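User: Let's play a game. I give you a shape written as tokens, and you guess the letters that built it. Ready? Here's round one.
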């Protein structure tokens, strides 16, 4: 393996771990939302980042029993 390949593989692994950690702690991922929407529902217009984050917070706290504390 070349140094470039090792760096590329390491970068991919770090990105995967970061995405997992974001999902675990509940950080909204706007870029992923937009990519998903374009891939699966191209006719829909994505929410702006501010509305997306508001919606995620509302969803998170509107479900009783959904939190550990």
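Assistant: Ready! My guess for every position:
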């Amino acid at each position: 393996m070349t140094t470039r390949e090792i760096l590329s593989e390491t970068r991919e692994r770090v990105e995967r771990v970061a995405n997992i950690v974001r999902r675990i702690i509940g950080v909204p991922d706007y870029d992923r939302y937009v990519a998903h929407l374009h891939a699966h529902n191209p006719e829909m217009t994505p929410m702006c980042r501010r509305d997306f984050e508001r919606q995620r917070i509302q969803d998170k706290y509107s479900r009783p029993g959904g939190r550990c504390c």
